[in-house]
Amino acid sequence: MTTDNHWKHLFAPESVALIGASNTRGSWGHGIMRHLLASPKRKVYPVNPNESEVLGIPAYDSVLNIPEAVDLAVIVVAAPRVPQIMQQCVQKGIKTAVIVSGGFAESGEPELEAEVVKIAREGSIRFIGPNTMGHADTSSGLCTLAWTAQIPPGPVALISQSGNMMHRIIHCGMSLGIGFSKFVSTGNEADLHLEDYLEYMAGDEKTRVITAYIEGLREGRRFLELARKITPNKPIIAIKAGGTTESARAVRSHTAALAGSDAIYTAAFRQSGVIRVDDDDELCDVVTALLYQPLPRSSRIGILTIGGGMGVVAAEAVEREGLEVAHLAPATIEKLNTYLPPRWSHGNPVDMAGISMDEHHLAFSALWTLMEDKNVDAILLQAPLGFSTERLARTFTSEEIEAHHQREGNNLELLHQRVKESGKPVFMVKPSVEFANDPEVSALFRKEELPVYSAPRRAAKVLNHLVWYKRYLDALRENC
Amino acid sequence: MTTDNHWKHLFAPESVALIGASNTRGSWGHGIMRHLLASPKRKVYPVNPNESEVLGIPAYDSVLNIPEAVDLAVIVVAAPRVPQIMQQCVQKGIKTAVIVSGGFAESGEPELEAEVVKIAREGSIRFIGPNTMGHADTSSGLCTLAWTAQIPPGPVALISQSGNMMHRIIHCGMSLGIGFSKFVSTGNEADLHLEDYLEYMAGDEKTRVITAYIEGLREGRRFLELARKITPNKPIIAIKAGGTTESARAVRSHTAALAGSDAIYTAAFRQSGVIRVDDDDELCDVVTALLYQPLPRSSRIGILTIGGGMGVVAAEAVEREGLEVAHLAPATIEKLNTYLPPRWSHGNPVDMAGISMDEHHLAFSALWTLMEDKNVDAILLQAPLGFSTERLARTFTSEEIEAHHQREGNNLELLHQRVKESGKPVFMVKPSVEFANDPEVSALFRKEELPVYSAPRRAAKVLNHLVWYKRYLDALRENC
Q1: B398 lies within 8 A of chain A by CB
Q2: Domain ranges, ordered by start, for chain B
Q3: How many cross-chain Cβ pairs, A to B, lie less than 8 Å apart?
Q4: Does A151-292 match A1-132 at the fold level?
């Protein structure tokens, strides 16, 4: 059997056996069973010697008694029983498995883990885990998670050395409208390593961006070689945790991995084009930008704000994150003078100093002017565009509101086009929390693929990642 | 007239004239008029020579024609007209003003500003601004803002050298359930300085915590002397912006202030007990902690998590923010062994390694045990306590859900008590975004005054501020 077939059986099996399937609500065996049944694309065989059926499906007392072929075994029985179950899987001719059960190397039982690996090797089984929280493929409809359901399909793959962090990243992404292609909680990586999944995701057509939560790499050199090949085509964004003394100790008790030197990871990621981020929020911020916005040519940022304080804070964020506050061309200043109110700041940051809701077209005009300036590579925008109906209703009639939405919608669509044409990303920063939490406003910006960030510092951090990635890619091309 | 009377007229006037009141929806003169009328506590006189009434209230063509005494004048006319208006205010015997109008020193018109100051000095008028976005006092019901209404009363005062940042901070606070006593956008500070407001807020009974957004101090030495006297009783939390080259330049064009050396500000704040934060999110995070939680005795943090990855990330956050991962006493480990599942991490971070929803009491038991450990000064908790009804309904019957809520409510109440008794703060970190955005869950924690943070790094940063502030206060006491 080829490796390709192993991957097919792992991520798009035609039949799955769940060993440890359960009718007890709240248990792993129950949660996974529900998710397996959510897709009609495959046969699901619950295995539990104490039940005649699980969730209405006839149960088997052993995989050996399942009458048909099984592509994938999902195992949630207690750790000491896993070797025997794996032997039965070998006997049944099953070639892939997901061992959800914990209680192996991470709990001071490396011999038990070694025994499982030995059985798998001899029987040509490739497996995820043990101690994994499962995996999923949104195009095949497979999900072996116990807790999170209904993950939207999309272009982002996720490989996580922590099940909880996988959940955090997925939820964070979902809240920003990000969809996922495939993801996997790698567990103890007794057989398949993070590097194997990375190689697989790199070749996956549905995946445009690869994300990872890393505690310790088992094949560091291979990771770097793979990353070097992948990042010119698909960005890799990674959290590397465990960079301090106590967190490194926590890594050992979590997945039995070695966290390694933080400085070495930093250097290695930089050399292979991997974008390193601090946490799940930052990871999702960068993903949104990479999916929807062009890479800026360089680091000179035009800042457009509704107020002076926001301009100050945005300029400080830009500089503190290693970017430059662009020096506007004289022609830009002159052009802005022709339509902005005379009180505007006459420089970058372009502070419009409180335009009214009737004057929103001025903000868009200022955006067009800034985008035309050759000294500007990207724009950070902090102005209350896209007001919600509720907010507008405090001041305007329903007819005025409709006209406002119409104008604003047209301008945002135009902005979307100009971003693509100019190759200059435009990052929106929420001017207020009131604005921030409005789903109507979020939907408006999402429709035009304009990323919205909660604070200037966060937007500037993401822009800096994009600038760095662009320079990495440019240097590669120059060396070719 | 005493200074006290000036303050009373500014923040709790019995009568207000709005010069520049307007019927044009969306204009400043309209927005401020609406807010002034929101409270029945005072008489409001609109002044506008072109209108017979504004929002149904008879309008005057000049303050001079208002038949009764006026405590406070709010001025929103074009800058060149302000000197004349101020002269009329002097003639009318008005003693305080809020000059909302911009177009003075910040727009290259320092002479115009000097003229206004001269008139005010000679007429014994004290004033806020010019170029202010207004101020408010939630106990007197006064609000001179144009845009934000219905600010909940509470113990937090805010002094801001930016109107937009004031709005951001207020909205951010409101979204976390923080109420405000008084706030002011200081504008150009041509007359009243940030230091004046600080002294006033320090003596205000309704104010327990003072917050500030600072671009440049006009009386640095006075600020420090005031801060030294205030911070032993009321914490001061400040954002100091403009610490980089271009942001300092932006400060000059914003409020005509000098940003000054960032290093000097840092040193001065540390010497006077001022907690310096980076942005509005962090400011509100710290305020929540100071309002509801005790100051930790020292920096040894107990970490309790539902999963290993979260433990790793939390430990890293704690160490990177300058705190310590506590070394648990052997008795603590033994006690945890008696009830946690054997797979738990057997150390700090205490990773419960996936307890089910039926086992939530274990998380609370572990909390009690950690709080009893003398090596633990504060606790960072990242576990999905307080599930929403919607989430529970995916798995449990309505009776089970009710019982769950009952148990959970009791335990959270007990947690509240134990925090007060032990003097050990407990900070909750949202285990997932799904959990994060649930208003039912937020309300549950808010009821028991347990701050909830979106990421471990943010919680650790706040804890570190608290530890620093406690050490500052302890050192003060030792030196007495």
Answers
A1: no
A2: 1-131, 151-292, 295-472
A3: 217
A4: yes
| A342 contacts chain B (CB < 8 A) | yes
Work out the end-to-end distance of chain B between its first and last CA atoms, rounded to an integer number of angstroms.
38
Yes or no, beta carbons of A106 and B308 under 8 Å apart: yes
Smallest Cβ–Cβ distance between B347 and the set A165, A253, A437 belongs to A253
Please answer yes or no on whether B254 and A311 come within 8 Å at the CB atom. yes
The per-residue pLDDT string of chain B (480 residues; one tens digit each, 9 = 90 and over) reads: 457 789 999 999 999 999 999 999 878 999 999 999 999 889 999 999 999 999 999 999 999 999 999 999 999 999 999 999 999 999 999 999 999 999 999 888 999 999 999 999 999 999 999 999 999 999 999 999 997 668 899 999 999 999 989 988 998 898 888 999 999 999 999 999 999 999 999 999 999 999 999 999 999 999 999 999 999 999 999 999 998 889 998 888 777 677 778 888 999 999 999 999 999 999 999 999 999 999 999 999 999 998 889 999 999 999 999 999 999 999 999 999 999 988 899 999 999 987 776 777 899 999 999 999 999 999 999 887 777 777 777 777 888 888 888 888 899 999 999 999 999 999 999 876 555 567 777 777 888 888 889 889 999 999 999 999 999 999 998 887
Residue B411's alpha-carbon distances to A17, B176, B324, B417, in angstroms, are 40, 22, 27, 10
- Write down the CATH number for the domain with range A295-472: 3.40.50.261
Residues within 8 A of B (CB atoms), A 166-195 only: 166-168, 171-172, 174-175
Chain B positions in Cβ-Cβ contact with residue A194 (cut-off 8 Å): none
Whole-structure pTM value: 0.91
Q: Which fold has domain B1-131?
A: Rossmann fold (3.40.50)
Smallest CA–CA distance, residue B123 to chain A, in Å, is: 29
How far apart, in Å, are the Cα atoms of A36 and each of A64, A70, A127? 20, 14, 18
| H/E element, A28 | helix A28-37
Find, among B112, B148, B143, the residue nearest to B130 by Cα.
B112
Minimum distance, in Å, between the CA of residue A233 and any CA atom of chain B? 29
Of A171, A306, A437, the CB nearest to B434: A171
Burial of B470 (0-12, 13-18, 19+ CB in 10 A): middle
Q: Considering just the CA atoms, what is the radius of gyration of chain B in Å?
A: 26
Would you call A347 and B215 a contact, using CB atoms and an 8 Å cutoff? no
> Domain B151-292 class?
alpha beta
Inspect the interface and report whether the beta carbons of B164 and A243 lie closer than 8 Å. Answer: no
Q: Which fold has domain A1-132?
A: Rossmann fold (3.40.50)
DSSP assigned state of B323: -
